Amino acid sequence: MPDVDEGPHGGSPEEPETEAERRRRRAQFLRELAEARELRARVQPRRAKTARLRRAMRMRTFRW
C-alpha cells in the first residue's frame, strides 16, 4: 500500500478538485447510472413496467 493517500480523482489530496473535473466525473456517473437502468429494464421487463406505472401514478397524484 502506498504511504500517500490519493484524492477522489487520483491526484494528491493537497490538490483541490477543479469544477470541470467534478462535472466530468458527475456526467460519467450519470451516464453509467442511466445505462444500468436501461440494462435492468431489458433484463426484467415486468418489474420495469410496474415501476414505470408506479412512477406515473405518483406523478398523477402529486399536487403543486
In words, what does this structure look like?
The chain has a domain of 43 residues. The termini are far apart. It is 66% helix and 0% strand. It is built from two helices and no strands. The chain is elongated and about 45 Å long. The chain is mainly alpha-helical and 64 residues long. Helix 1 crosses helix 2.
Q: Please state the oligomeric state of the protein chains shown.
A: single chain
Low-confidence runs of at least 5 consecutive residues: none
Give me the number of helical elements: 2
Shape assignment = elongated
**On the 0-100 scale, what is the average pLDDT?**
81
**Strand portion, in percent?**
under 5%
**Helix and strand pattern:** HH
Q: In which range does the helix fraction lie? A: 55-70%
Give Rg in angstroms.
19 Å
Q: Let me know the largest β-sheet.
A: none
Total beta-strand segments: 0
Distance between the termini: 53 Å
Q: Would you tell me the structural class of the helices and strands?
A: mainly alpha
